[in-house]
Design goal:
The complex is a heterodimer of chains A (367) and B (379). By secondary structure, chain A is an alpha+beta fold. Chain A contains 10 helices and 14 strands. Chain A folds into 3 domains: 63 residues, no CATH class; 112 residues, 2-Layer Sandwich (60s Ribosomal Protein L30, Chain: A); 169 residues, Alpha-Beta Complex (Phosphoribosyl-aminoimidazole Synthetase, Chain A, domain 2). Chain B is globular and about 65 Å long. Chain B is 39% helix and 17% strand. Classes of the chains: A alpha+beta (367), B alpha/beta (379). Chains A and B meet through helix 1, helix 2, helix 9 and strand 14 of A and helix 1, helix 2, helix 3, helix 5 and helix 11 of B.
């Protein structure tokens, strides 16, 4: 016996969309699970309903990669950011935790249009950790800092008992100065804007998952970890005011970045599946693992939302930089009254689907 | 694995041609309900937006073949009871970690201190057992005939290597009894079936013959790429137009009519039919699941550990059973999208990536709205 549905399909859909777009106020869980760290909806809920609720202030409220503030009236504009690194394994093809820790924070600063200046580094080390490994990590931090033209100017060391940490965790924070007269923010995004990515998607996350060795897959893959400071400067030089907003699609991948942007702007973003740059190795590995490159972390790629008239010059600027050779225009921002705040993907066969934040799959630690 | 192989089955041009051919087969005024039995198909249909290419007269009905979806609450409670034993490392496919039981999910048990680890195959679990000789490693074995052979092979290997700290919590189910239950269900009128390609690689196409013979319904065993599904639909409609009901094999690049005898042998060596097994939402179905043979009792978690073994009623509000039988669409469930969401699922169909509710919620919820808007108003 099934009774007639009480709601029409449109009513059900409207209710879902309304709920999705409402600010999160309540945390329903009573313990932290791995989902809260996966970068999807559970992380979002934790940040909004707990951290933001307790620590609320105008700078934090933007929930950007960096906080941007002026030092005194008319003084320099600074960007300030922090990130912690718990990747396992510590050394993986294409990089290690040290390089990741420097590039990650440098990139967060660069996404606000800042020139990164100084970093701090905090180390939480497990008793028994081999000093040669620590040496290797710190040396690679030094090399990454030099390459990004920043200095690590302060730091901290803590050692915890064996079993209390997985070898080594690293935290970095950084400050940068915004010398350009621009305000990169989701508020600047308009219908008609194009979304560019600076290169192939999903390389870092896939490489680290394979490097963990428990998949018994042999794929030739390297992390893309790199400083985006130079690439960003070239892009802003070429496209200037045409650049509305920058994001580095790390944990949660391009899908999460765009889902957040759509939500904030109340606009619809349409991704063209056939335009997404994805290497055959990542594509193949993800097919086997049941993952989507759109959701996989990148550590050396940026997503730029660019005014339509600046899209070509932005693309050319990205492609002429060594880190942006595979750059592509992958999506368009539209004003669709039926799909406000929604990301849709036009599939290769000509269908479409929603691209939402992940509900919190317990993915392994990759950054 | 090469990318071209995958992309060949996702060509937009070929898809459009197939869609046009399907449209030509639709008889004026006739509606078609075609069930895709397997959750893998459901996932692919939503992931690629296959329904966008089908004429409105054709409705794809999602079937019971989602391994995570059919595990009843009581078995999930048993799994958590085993996982919470201090000596146990409990290994499971990722999807099962978020399935709600009476007192939270395996992921919640993990946050309370249980050693729960995600694996991609039972052989990974066996490796964990080898690497942790002082611990007891249990693998949560679920799935249809697709995953049963790898469980069987792992068991045989564990015995051959004399690995004693490894056991299986067996929940393998068989697809044919579930299809029978659906055909027996009075609520549903189906015109044909997209048969489960992966299951058929193991059991072959013959076990599906009763559907064509006794029920007069076409079955097309199909692959999982979007073009496979479209071609499967095309073949079902062709049979309907010709007045035929046969078992056809669209997935012949992988599926043999006789299946995989070696895999069937490994299953037969290690497992036997249970007299009855509870399916979420569908109730008890006789001879629908497998347990380990007695000679493998030393590797049988149900024998080694005391589990509550209590039948727990599904949450009242949850209509997973009706969804699994294809009687209602996901959105017709009373709690869909309100009390039951991917972040806080009540039912299994909202957890698994192969579950109809999760697939519709995560991927499909907007495309239908657009289709309905663009559809010409009825004359």
């Amino acid at each position: 016996m099934s009774e007639r549905p009480a709601r029409t399909e449109e009513e059900v859909l409207d209710a879902i969309e309304l709920r999705r777009r409402r600010p999160v106020r309540k945390l329903l869980d009573d313990r932290i699970t791995l989902s809260h760290g996966a970068g999807g909806k559970a992380t979002h809920t934790l940040v909004e309903a707990l951290f933001l609720a307790e620590l609320r202030n105008p700078l934090l409220e933007t929930l950007g990669d960096s906080a941007v503030f002026e030092v005194g009236a008319g003084g320099p504009r600074l960007a300030f950011s922090t990130d912690s690194y718990v990747v396992h394994p510590l050394f993986f093809p294409g990089g290690d935790i040290g390089e990741l820790a420097v590039n990650g924070t440098v990139n967060d600063l660069a996404m606000s249009g800042a020139r990164p200046l100084h970093l701090s580094a905090g180390f939480i080390i497990e008793e028994g950790f081999p000093i040669p490994d620590l040496q290797r990590v710190v040396a690679s931090m030094g090399a990454a800092a030099r390459a990004a033209n920043v200095a690590i100017v302060t730091g901290d060391t803590k050692v915890v008992e064996r079993g209390k940490a997985d070898g080594l965790y690293v935290n970095t924070a950084g400050v940068g100065v915004i010398e350009r007269d621009l305000d990169l923010s989701p508020a600047a995004v308009r219908a008609g804007d194009r979304v560019l990515v600076s290169g192939t998607l999903g390389d870092h996350g896939t490489a680290v998952m394979i490097a963990r060795g428990d998949l018994e897959l042999e794929v030739d893959l390297e992390s893309d970890t790199a400083s985006l400071a130079g690439l960003t400067a070239d892009l802003l030089d070429a496209a200037g005011d045409g650049v509305r907003c920058l994001r580095d699609p790390t944990r949660g991948g391009l899908a999460t970045v765009l889902a957040e942007l759509a939500l904030e702007t109340e606009l619809c973003i349409i991704i063209d599946e056939t335009a997404l740059p994805i290497t055959p190795s990542v594509h193949g590995a993800c097919e086997i693992l049941g993952l989507y490159p759109l959701y996989i972390a990148n550590e050396g790629k940026l997503a730029a939302i660019v005014a339509p008239e600046a899209a070509d010059s932005a693309l050319a600027a990205l492609r002429s930089h060594p880190l942006g050779q595979d750059a592509a225009i992958v999506a368009e921002v539209i004003d669709d009254p039926d799909a406000p705040g929604l990301v849709l993907l036009e599939t290769a066969i000509g269908g479409s689907r929603v691209v939402d934040m992940l509900a919190g799959d317990p993915l392994p630690r990759i950054c | 694995m090469s990318m071209r192989f995958v992309d060949e089955y996702r060509s937009g041009d070929v898809a459009k041609r197939l869609a046009a051919q399907i449209e030509e087969l639709v008889e004026p005024g006739r509606k078609y309900k075609v069930m895709e039995v397997c959750g893998g198909h459901t996932h692919s249909i939503y992931q690629h937006g296959v329904e966008d290419l089908l004429p409105p007269e054709i409705e794809l009905v999602h079937g019971p073949g989602c391994p995570v979806c059919v595990i009843p609450m009581g078995r999930q409670d048993d799994a958590i009871a085993i996982a919470e034993r201090p000596e146990v490392i409990f290994t499971t496919f990722g999807d099962m970690m978020r399935v709600p039981a009476s007192n939270g999910s395996l992921l919640d048990a993990k946050s309370r201190g249980a050693d729960v680890r995600m694996v991609y195959s039972p052989l990974d679990a066996l490796k964990i057992a080898r690497d942790n000789p002082a611990r007891q490693v249990v693998f949560f074995a679920i799935g249809f005939e697709t995953t049963t052979p790898s469980t069987a092979v792992t068991l045989l290997r564990a015995r051959a290597e004399g690995i004693r700290n490894f056991s299986l919590f067996a929940n393998h189910v068989t697809i044919i009894p579930a299809i029978r239950a659906i055909l027996d269900s009075p609520d549903l009128r189906l015109d044909g079936f997209i048969g489960p390609g992966h299951v058929a690689t193991v059991i072959g196409t013959r076990p599906f013959r009763f559907i064509a013979r006794d029920w007069g319904r076409p079955v097309v065993v199909s692959g999982f790429e979007p073009l496979d599904v479209l071609q499967g639909v095309h073949m079902v409609l062709t049979q309907l137009r010709d007045g035929r009901s046969e078992v056809e094999n669209q997935y012949s690049r992988v599926v043999r009519d006789e299946g995989n005898p070696a895999a069937m042998k490994a299953i037969g060596q290690t497992m036997e039919l249970r007299t009855t097994f509870e399916w979420r939402g569908l109730g008890f179905i006789s001879q629908s699941a497998l347990k380990l043979r007695e000679e493998f009792a030393d590797w049988d978690a149900e024998v080694i550990y005391e589990v509550p073994g209590v039948r727990v009623a599904d949450p009242k509000a949850c209509q997973c059973g009706e969804v699994l039988k294809g009687v209602i669409k996901p959105w017709e469930c009373k709690v869909f999208g309100t009390a039951c969401t991917p972040e806080h699922p009540i039912g299994t169909c909202m957890v698994s990536s192969e579950g109809a509710c999760a697939a519709y919620f995560n991927y499909g919820r907007h495309a239908g709205r657009r289709r309905r808007k663009e559809a010409p108003a009825p004359a």
